[in-house]
Amino acid sequence: MRTPAGKECKYYYADYHRGRDTQACRLLERNPQGGAWKPSLCGKCPVPDILRQNACPHLALEAKVEKGFLGLTEKVGVYAVCAKKMVEVDKPAIGCGSCHEALNKLGA
Could you give the number of structural domains in the chain? Predict the structure, then answer.
């Protein structure tokens, strides 16, 4: 679904059917310490770009709202794990690398 910032994100949810006015980030809702979502967070959220750049089915994402400078600004922080190798992924847009090696061997 298209976010308020205009990017496609599978975690964004909106419902305006029959007078409803519901918007939510399902990724932040899954995390009990995720924080409160608001539409302005979608503008600089890295998740839509990560999903566009890395379509690995083993990539598991977790997000939370992080406070910025003096607590005046907020941004979405992302934590990623490879569910296949059970390792933390430092660069979620690239992935852990092991799944891509296996795909390259199958294709060659």
Answer: 1
